[in-house]
Every structure is written in structure tokens, then in C-alpha cells.
Write the C-alpha cells for this entry.
Amino acid sequence: MEIPRLWQVIATVRLGLAVNLWLIALAGLGYLQHLHWCVRDRWIGFTLLGFFALVLLTSGVWNFGLQTAAHAGAGAVRAAASGKTVDAYFGISPQWVCVRPIGPVEDIHVDGGEFRPSRPYLKIGDASGTAVLWDPAEKSALKMPMDKLRIIPVDEPPKSCAPSA
């Protein structure tokens, strides 16, 4: 998906914070050698430092990246399942839509599930001519070509998106 530049910069800063935690361990190596606490050919100091560096790197990546993304994704799935509006996260602003096929439904290539025009979908985003829609009923993401769809935004998900006769 296409993420706005501002949010790309914010994500880069967060990644930098995660990596900086790892650099604390390397700075610790400098202090240990300067104070002669880490003597050459002694493996205990280097082993402890390596363990400390690994713990800091893992906690930085987990806390600044993976945990927040997983939390936002789980919140979006819960909100979509209950039919509520989903909060934006890092430039992705999901919205409820009804989707009408342009031409026969059988001619539309769908990656990730089955497309049913009568269902409301949560449009997560689009990129390079591909729309990404979340199907709350099937709990799966559908990827479809945008040139074969007419996407109609709605304020809240209706019971059915079937066209009225």
C-alpha cells in the first residue's frame, strides 16, 4: 500500500529508536574496555555483553515495531467485526465501502477469498491499481484490480450492499 511520506518518516524514526537500544550495548563495550572490566581473552564479559545486546535489540524491535502494529491490526479486526469505524494507523485510513463490479463478477481476479458484491467491505488501501479490502464475515483480505471495480464509500456498514431494484 502507498503510505504518505510523513508516516514513512515517523516509521523510520521509530526504527531508529529500536536500533539505538542495540547501540547502548555497543557503548557498554567501550566503557567496559575503558575501565578494564572486559579483559582480552576473557569470554564472560563478552558473553554477557552479547546477551545484553540481543535482549536490547529484541525488546526495541518488539516494543517499537511489532507490538504496536499487531495491536493496531487486532483493534482494526475487532472494530470491523462489530461494524464500527476503524481508527487510522500510520497513514492507513480504512473506510467502509460497497463494491460494484464493472462487468461480470467471474472476470474479476480475486486474491485471498471470494468476492461477493452484496457484502460491505472495509477498504484498507490501494497501490499500483490493486485495492485491498477486508471482509469482516470471512476475516480475510481480498486483493482485486481497481479498474474492474466501482468503490462506493459509506459512513457505516449497511446490512447489505445489494443494489435495490
Q: What stands out?
A: Residues 43-81 form the longest helix (39 residues).
